[in-house]
């Protein structure tokens, strides 16, 4: 094999997957058709669950330093100020959710941070290198690449198509991309500078007589650019600075801000599609290659990052472990991610309908877009018999909690989970069944205050860990490498609550 995993496409999905593989020592090659990294803010809203993934990948500090919270929007009608409101209500962090609010950062800058992290792991994106076609057999894939007109043949154990909505990988496999493209709706989007606007706020400039139609300008962190978005007539003109200015002038007669320096622009059509399968043999689809979203709801980039985060550890385990274990792990990728993508498409499509109908709340986003409630309870990997409503179950996101380590330092459960490994938590001083822990897997007893901490134990000084995991003493909880509960093993000693 020339490489263990060939990744086609270096957008956020491909980059996340490459980091996941590289930090596990898997030989991954990531190729990108474009000669230079993409420019443009596109997916500029990072959801809370993505921030948790970025924490695990080691890029959260850079993302927080480069980005900013969502700005509130100032609404104007015909140039007259109407009021100011937030796109979503500000949430205070809680012990189990340390990053409850979306974070804004232009997609090109997020990708830059991911590329830097990948380079730190010794892997560089092969730019100007296109996947042309491939064939597969039972041992892997033979791919044809093209770089500067020169063809190259590469053998890989696995191929992942992270090559966007027009995916060559999906098309080569002939996997249907089911859904629709609505040609009657067009959105004009761009990154511009605007004279006369405070960059600390977002703006909604609407028609004096029709508050439903207008232009949104949202500030992009790390400079003075705004992301410009407005619906276009079906027969609208080409995207240009003059077009954007003319649209703005229409909504703010006499008082329109002056736009200048169009850094990026596109005309976007709602394309809402889901691949019928996410896997064919040794080939996988991830990100926009598997599901295309409307930008309403800010889900596309986030869902792609989660796909990659779900697939990375499974591919690494399949490549290093016995074949018998590889089959259920690799099968579980589609079983876990396809229903999530279908659900997320439903959420963003409902928001798109609100937007098109001119619903005043179309720009507001609720907790359903945060992806913290994504889980895999129906996964074939789940081993748990707990079914009580409201209780944490296998397949759920493993909550965070503040704890104290054996040296008396305040740390978090997420500190224990960070890294490429799975983690076993055992609760209380009562003996727990630790047989699910594989050799080398960190095992951390979570003790109640007053119990004696050994080297790897932590003390649940404020009671948040016991309450978030909702378990009795002696329970063992396996946390998968991607931060979901893999199994909950009951106490070896029977407890009255039957946890
Ligand atoms: C205007 C707009 C606003 C958006 N807003 C949001 C938002 O707020 N939040 C959000 O989460 N998402 C948003 N999105 C969606 C988000 O941009 C996408 O979901 C995200 O880019 C998908 O990432 P990806 O890596 O799967 O695919 P892409 O980013 O499309 O990357 C695929 C890469 O593969 C490369 N490629 C294609 N074919 C080949 C080939 N044959 N060989 C090699 N390389 C190839 C492409 O050049 C590209 O770089 C928005 C999108 C748009 C257009």
UniProtKB/TrEMBL annotation:
A Pfam family recorded for this sequence: Rng_hyd_C
GO MF annotation list: monooxygenase activity
Source species, domain of life: Bacteria
UniProt KW keywords: FAD, Flavoprotein, Monooxygenase, Oxidoreductase
Domain FAD-binding per the UniProt entry, residue ranges: 2-345
InterPro entries: FAD-bd (IPR002938), FAD/NAD-bd_sf (IPR036188), RIFMO-like (IPR050641), Thioredoxin-like_sf (IPR036249)
Cofactor(s) in the UniProt record: FAD
NCBIfam families in the cross-refs: PRK06184.1 (NF004832)
Matches recorded under PANTHER family: BINDING MONOOXYGENASE, PUTATIVE (JCVI)-RELATED, TRK SYSTEM POTASSIUM UPTAKE PROTEIN
Family under the similarity heading: Belongs to the PheA/TfdB FAD monooxygenase family.
Protein name, as recorded: FAD-dependent monooxygenase
Organism name: Pseudonocardia alaniniphila
């Amino acid at each position: 094999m020339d490489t263990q995993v060939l990744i086609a496409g270096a957008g956020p999905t491909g980059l996340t997957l490459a980091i996941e593989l590289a930090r596990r020592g898997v030989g991954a090659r990531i190729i990108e058709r474009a000669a230079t990294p993409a420019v443009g803010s596109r997916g500029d809203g990072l959801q809370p669950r993505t921030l948790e993934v970025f924490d695990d990948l080691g890029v959260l500090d850079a993302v927080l330093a480069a980005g900013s919270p969502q700005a509130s929007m100032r609404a104007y009608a015909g140039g007259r100020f109407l009021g100011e409101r937030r796109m979503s209500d500000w949430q205070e962090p809680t012990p189990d959710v340390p990053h409850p609010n979306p974070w804004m950062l232009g997609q090109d800058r997020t990708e830059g941070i991911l590329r830097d992290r990948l380079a730190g792991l010794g892997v560089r994106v092969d730019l100007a290198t296109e996947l042309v076609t491939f064939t597969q057999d039972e041992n892997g894939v033979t791919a044809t690449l093209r770089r500067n007109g020169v063809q190259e043949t590469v053998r890989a154990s696995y191929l992942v198509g992270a090559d966007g909505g027009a995916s060559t990988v999906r098309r080569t496999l002939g996997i249907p991309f089911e859904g629709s493209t609505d040609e009657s709706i067009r959105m004009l989007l761009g990154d511009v500078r605007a004279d006369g606007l405070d960059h600390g706020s977002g703006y909604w400039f609407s028609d004096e007589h029709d508050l439903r139609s207008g232009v949104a300008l949202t500030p992009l962190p790390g400079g003075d650019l705004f992301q410009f978005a407005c619906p276009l007539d079906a027969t609208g003109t080409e995207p240009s600075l003059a077009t954007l200015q003319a649209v703005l002038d229409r909504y703010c007669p006499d008082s329109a801000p002056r736009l200048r320096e169009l850094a990026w622009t596109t005309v976007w059509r709602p394309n809402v599609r889901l691949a019928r399968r996410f896997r064919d043999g040794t080939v996988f689809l991830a990100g926009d290659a598997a599901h295309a979203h409307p930008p309403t709801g800010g889900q596309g980039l986030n869902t792609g990052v989660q796909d990659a985060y779900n697939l990375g550890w499974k591919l690494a385990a399949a490549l290093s472990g016995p074949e018998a274990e590889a089959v259920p792990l690799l099968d579980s990728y589609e079983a876990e991610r396809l229903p999530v993508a279908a659900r997320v498409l439903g959420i963003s499509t409902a928001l798109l309908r609100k937007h098109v109908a001119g619903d005043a709340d179309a720009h507001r986003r609720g907790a359903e877009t945060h992806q913290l409630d994504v889980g895999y309870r129906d996964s074939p990997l789940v081993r748990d018999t707990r079914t009580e409503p409201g209780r944490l179950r296998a397949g759920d996101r493993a909550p965070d909690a503040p704890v104290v380590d054996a040296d008396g330092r305040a740390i978090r459960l997420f500190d224990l989970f960070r890294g490429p490994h799975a983690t076993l938590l055992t609760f209380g001083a009562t003996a727990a069944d630790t047989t699910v822990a594989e050799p080398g897997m960190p095992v951390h007893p979570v003790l109640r205050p007053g119990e004696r901490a050994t080297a790897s134990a932590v003390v649940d000084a404020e009671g948040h860990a016991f309450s978030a995991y909702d378990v009795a003493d002696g329970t063992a909880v396996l946390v998968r490498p991607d931060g979901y509960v893999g199994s909950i093993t009951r106490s070896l000693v029977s407890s009255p609550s039957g946890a």
